[in-house]
Amino acid sequence: MKTGEKIAKARKIINLTQDQLAELLEVTRQTISKWESELAFPETAKIPKLAEVLKVSCDYLLRDDKSVTTEVSMQSSNGYVVDWTKLYPILGEYQNTVNCKQYHRIFTEMIKEMMKTYNYSLDDTVLVLKDLQYNAFLEMQNENKI
Length: 146
Prior knowledge:
Layout: H1 3-13, H2 18-25, H3 29-36, H4 47-54, H5 58-62, E1 73-75, E2 81-83, H6 84-87, H7 90-93, H8 100-118, H9 122-145
Helix pairs in contact: 2-3, 8-9
């Protein structure tokens, strides 16, 4: 995959428009368009910031690798940063195979419906849906044991 394709793919994975990416990098939308269509290449000084914004490594942008790895990390209360993609590699890979926009729409509609029906806050709704999903997971695990 070429650098322009990688930029476009990573940008779409994190749901940024060319305009938004351009603003974050202090360049024009046309510059982003040229990078993505391989008519130009980012200045060397822009690559670290580009990689940071797209949540990929500089190495990924510059090498001829095949997949986008999105960094998924969380800082705990004790200051340690957990990179969930190292613990669960699927978290860095699924964006390449799953129709994320389709599931995003489905989940958004579920959340909105539950908030409206039960007058729950957004946080409460997400917690309830997580609990329902976990219970479904446990049921499926038990079915597979039989």
